[in-house]
Structure formats: structure tokens, C-alpha cells
Amino acid sequence: MIKAKSIKITILLLASVMMIFISSYSFIFAKHSERNIIFYSNDHLDTTQVFNTDEKAMEKAKKYKEDGNLKFQSSILDVTNSSFMDFDSVAYPYETVRNDKKLQLELQQALSAGKKVYLYGDLSLTDYTNALDTEIQMEIPSKDNKSYIIDLTDNNDEKADKKKRPQIKSLRDFQIIGLSKNTGDELRLLLMNIDVTVENGSKVKPSSMIYLQSILQHEAKGIERVESKLLSINSAAAGNTIVKSSSAEIISSAIYLSGTAGQIISQWLLSKNNDEIDSTYDYFSLEDQVQYTQVDSGWDCEVAKAKHTLPYTSDEVWDSDPDDTNDGPFSISIGTPWFISFNYTINTAPDINLTEDLVADISTWDITDNAMESEDKHKFTTAWKSTGTLAAIDVYHYGKWHSGINVYTDTSQSFQISYDY
User: Is the pLDDT confidence value at 328 over 90?
Assistant: First the structure.
């Protein structure tokens, strides 16, 4: 009888412990899969219409709104009453922030407290970092299981032995930049371009509604990442300005009227050959991973482009792949001392035409296809020789989506990937 009673007590204790664990887990999971955003603008937005849309890109956001995990508040700009510290994320027009030092300080404090701060409108990474007195660096992986801390701005101080080419164009501004210093956030960085095409084929600036919906789409992806994990505990290590590329969303949206036709999504692998003994050059390669995605089934991406340019006169492109082809698998083969060799396949078989200008050090891929599929991940690869201790390459992507006859929308993105060592 004593033994049976002891077993019964043990079972009850184990059950109590499990209930405490489940309760704690549910609290942690619920707490960190919920997001509450405040969006400031100059417009009186009809908030009932934010989710009342057939826009395909809003489907995840609508789901999490219905589940109660995604909440937002829209507010007319009032820089004298910036009560946003009770929210997980805050969004402001860049033009408003740029001209208000007090608001800049308040947003800096929010960023330091682990909030995600979005600035929207036309702005560069330098505009964002200057306004919020912060840095943005990204940690990107390499094929040899290492990682490199890179800068994505094009305003690096020129070193004595590195001169920029005169024909190099400035990088395109972003329309939304969002950053969280909280290392517990699943998505810490948003770099987004938005292009809106109207019926006559001309471009117009995104509306406040499009900005808000784009931010909510990004927040929904963060919630989805949390829910896909068994357990997510927010480490709340605010202050870290180095963002892993896996926690960054780098995206461009091609919008027709108010609906998203397609998007360009980017990630990179940077590698440095540490075995070479060249006294003049270091040897680098970039694997530029690009998806030209179909968001709305009524639109097809039929024309795309990728371009790699070396911005400094002393650096030299050695080789780029894939070469001209209209069939997979696509081969990447770059010889000594890079020793890069791999194949990749994609669902469609686009025509790819590579143009290499070894004088200007530019590699350009022109891609045509009847219908690129969203899962298709191109891997445009360039190997180059770099002098000094600053390696840099400019990356440009373009995509054009068609629907019917003479109806199209397009978008682009550009970056400078700089590694200072």
C-alpha cells in the first residue's frame, strides 16, 4: 500500500511539473508570436480596409490578424506626442523624422529598448543610420562554413589605394527600412523597394496604405518564423547592430495599382580564398541568390536581369557563371585559386545570356522566360581579385511581370556589398 501511494504521489508531482511547463511554454510562445505595430502617417487611413482586400501578399497578415497575433494602430502624425513605447514596432515617414531631432532621439531610445523601428519613404541606409544614430551591418555565410561582416552602404571612406570608377551610379534608395537590435527577433532587418505602376504605365509613389500593408506582411513573416519553432525565447539582447542574413528580408515589390504582382527576394554567399599567396590581390567570390517570385497567379515574370559591378578601379573581375544557356542544370565552374564547382536546377528553363565586360569589370545576366516560378532560385556567381583590404561589389536586380497584353509592372533593387578587413 505504501508503494502504491508513493507511485501515485510521484505521478501527481510529474503531472504538476508538466502542467507548469506547458503553461510556461504557452505563455512564452504566445508572448513572442504576437506583434503590435503603430503606424504614423499624414493620412487618415480607413483601418477597416487594411485587411479587407483580395491582395495575395496579405494572406498571412490576414490570418494572424484573425488569430489575434497581429495588431496595429494607425495614427496621424503628431510629433509632440510620440507614445509608441508600448508597441513592438513603430513606423514613421522618413521626411518627418529627418527634420525632427527630438523625434529622432525618441526613436533611438525605442531602438535601444528592442523595438523594431521602420522609416518609410525614399531613403538610403545612410539616411537611416544617420537619423537613428546606429550602424547596420550584416553577417553573411560563405561556402566554407565561415561568415563575413559586410556593410551594405556605398559611402565607405575611400582608402588610399582604392579609387571609385567615375561611371558608378549611386545605389537606389529603399522605400522601407526596418531594424530591430533585439537578437531574439526572428526577422531583424527589412530592406524593401516598392514600385507602383498605374494604368498608363507610369510610376507613382506608394500610398500610406501600401506602406502599412507592406510592413504588416513583413511582421506576419516574423510571426510565422516564431510559430515554426518548437520554443522561442526572446533573448532581448538589444544593442547588437550585426544582423545575420537569415534574419533579414531583402525584397522588392512590383505593384500594379494596389495589388502585388511579383517580388524579387535576395540573399548572398561571400567567400574569400585564404590559401592564395598573391602579394597584390585577395581573391573573393559572391554567390548572388535571387528569386523572381510570382505573388498573383495572373502575373508572369518574363524578363529579368542581374548585374555585378566592381566599383573600384584596381579590382578585376576574373569570371562569372552561369554562361549563356537555355537549359538546366546550370553549371558554376570557376578555376584556380577559387575552385568553385557546383550545379543547380530550377523548375523552369529560362534563356540566360551572360555579358562580361572585363574592361569595365561588369557581368550582366539577361533572363527571359515564359513564366519563372516562385521557387526558382538563381545563383549568379562572380569571382574577382581585390587590392588592399576593402573588397566591394555592386549588385543590381530587375524583374518585369506581365498580365495580358501590354499590362506590366516592374521593380528593381541595388546594393553594395563591402567587406572591410
Answer: no
Three-state DSSP class for 135?
A: coil
Look at the alpha carbons of 239, 241, 246, 250 in this order and tell me if their dihedral is positive or negative.
positive
pLDDT value of residue 325: 85
For the record, the C-alpha cell of 298 comes out as: 495572373
Does residue 180 sit in helix, strand or coil? strand
| Burial degree of 108 (CB within 10 A; 0-12, 13-18, 19+) | middle
> Which residue from 242, 112, 243, 238 is spatially nearest to 182, judged by alpha carbons?
238
Asked whether the predicted pLDDT for residue 305 surpasses 70, the reply is yes
CA 355, 272, 243 angle in degrees (round to 5)?
95
The three grid cell numbers given for residue 250, joined into one nine-digit string: 531583402
Q: Is the pLDDT of residue 267 over 90?
A: yes
Residue 325 bridge partners (DSSP) = 352
Establish whether the linkage from the previous residue to 311 is cis, with ω within 30° of 0. no
Tell me how crowded residue 88 is: count the other CB atoms within 10 A of its CB.
Answer: 20
Residue 26 phi/psi, 5-degree rounding, is -60, -40
> Could you tell me the pTM of the whole model?
0.88
User: How do residues 53-85 score in pLDDT, each as one tens digit?
Assistant: 888 899 999 999 999 999 999 998 864 555 788
93 cis-preceded (ω within 30 degrees of 0): no
Phi/psi class of residue 288: alpha, beta or left (left: φ > 0; alpha: ψ in -120 to 50)? beta
